Amino acid sequence: MNIFHHKRKKYRFLCLAISTFIVLLIGIIPVRIAIAFSQTPIPQAIFTLGGGPNREKFTAQFAQNHPTLEIWVSSGTRPDIASKIFREAGISDERINLDRRAVDTVTNFTSLVADFKSRNIQHVYLVTSDFHMRRAIAIATIVFGSQGIAFTPVSIPTKNPPETWLHILRDFGRAILWLFTGRTGASARTLIHLLASDRSLV
Fold it and tell me: Which pTM value belongs to this model?
């Protein structure tokens, strides 16, 4: 009985220690975001989440009013189409970074956060559709916030209903997974979608 009781106490202490560490780590994020805002109150770049040519078109118009800012588009429209949209808006190729590494919204952030840090970018405009913004903010808070990068949301108006809280909580959890493990769960998510597709064909 004493051995069992000792093991239970040790297990409880370990759980408490891990929980405390997680709470403290996540609790630091708002502080890091506040510091980034104070050090860099004006955004240094435009960061657009891919999801159809309307986002590039909006970004091109938005960039016209911010001529000194670089533009980063994560897994958006095909590069040839996106480049044409920006050129027609008078945006030079030198300002544009079309990154194709992301496979979903979580990896939109995790695939570029190191690039922003290496360029000392501490504050970005976060551009996406209005229905998608809540999920983007949830992920950005963990991924960008944990790395000391602030963001200013810029919503693209649409007529689509907001995404469900299930989608938001799922990707918020994946962002936390990335924070502690460096993994996003994207490969598992892709496998689930493939399996679901195979079943629908049976």
Answer: 0.82
